User: What shape does this take?
Amino acid sequence: MAKKPKRVLVTGAAGFIGSHLCDALLAKGYAVTGVDNLLTGAADNLSAARESPLFVFQEADVVEPLDHDVSVIYHLASPASPVDYLEMPVGTMLANSLGTLNCLELARSLEARMVLASTSEVYGDPEVSPQGEGYFGHVNPTGPRSCYDESKRFAEALCMAYRREHDSEVVIVRIFNTYGRRMRPDDGRVIPNFVSQALAGAPLTVYGDGGQTRSFCHVDDMVKGLLLAMETPEAAGEIINIGNPNEMRVIDLAALVKQRTGSDSPLEFEPLPQDDPRQRRPDITRAMSLLGWAPRVGIEEGLDDVIEYVRGLSP
Ligand code: NAD
Ligand code: UDP
Assistant: This one.
């Protein structure tokens, strides 16, 4: 009799990264259970996954206890765009606190590995660059972004508490800015904003003077890193940055989007949001040595992918 495929639970499955992760897991022969309450994700993101007989979807909130028979759990359920989490600060904190607790309890009862989707936001507005996993961060604990930053920091601390007290097999992945197809064009993050503005001939909204930096990782590279975090035995108990160290200024990104779309949209300068980090760049030494991972997709190629996607959405 053929061996039953390993079943993987993905919370936040209908979201941008979650839906790509489901597709990649199914392509590798895993069975996948996706859970999502469709707060910031969309059922349409799962149309490819739904074609597989190995895919099951449950519309549910991770704040409620989870009950699934799986071998691995990925916890991605949480609003991720600043625009989204500023609108839903309490829900964001609950997804990352109670939601993480529910995932850890399920993982403990099943002796399953749990991969936490954490974030570079745990470094806050960093005083060192690049940011290595040993850096403790520089975070405003009560500012507008704290609902996200601090709940992700709590989620990380809870994972490590479960590891110390219950020997749980946790892996913490600190995801740096990721972009690609299936981001909502209106989700407020900089790449979907600039691309939709450029394609509409509208001004590109640059916050502050645009001198702040980010390092953008294409979702295909991110998903490969997430798969390795699950499949690499030595990753248990580790904290691993996954991102593309190719740091750039937001104003240079605006110029590049204009160039790749052929747009002559002007730039419109708007106030910098409170606590917006000035700089962000991952040190990926650990991901390279432990997982054998490195990003492959360059920003030009990655932007072209998003531009094609957003063009395809226009009526
Ligand atoms: P997204 O908003 O597209 O996806 C998040 C998904 O979680 C959505 O489908 C949403 O409906 C779901 N969700 C939210 N709260 C939920 C709840 N209580 N119960 C069930 N489902 C819930 O965002 P994304 O960019 O795909 O981010 C996925 C994960 O990766 C998040 O945990 C985020 O913090 C992390 N992350 C993303 C980035 C990035 O640049 N995209 C960077 C750092 C970390
Ligand atoms: N940003 C911008 N214009 C926009 C959206 C964002 O200049 O229309 C800036 C934002 O202030 C930040 C950077 O782009 O400095 C990345 O923002 P995003 O929301 O994508 O992610 P963050 O890294 O802040 O979570």
In short: The chain has a mean pLDDT of 97. The chain has ten helices and 13 strands. Residues 164 and 179 are 34 Å apart (CA to CA).
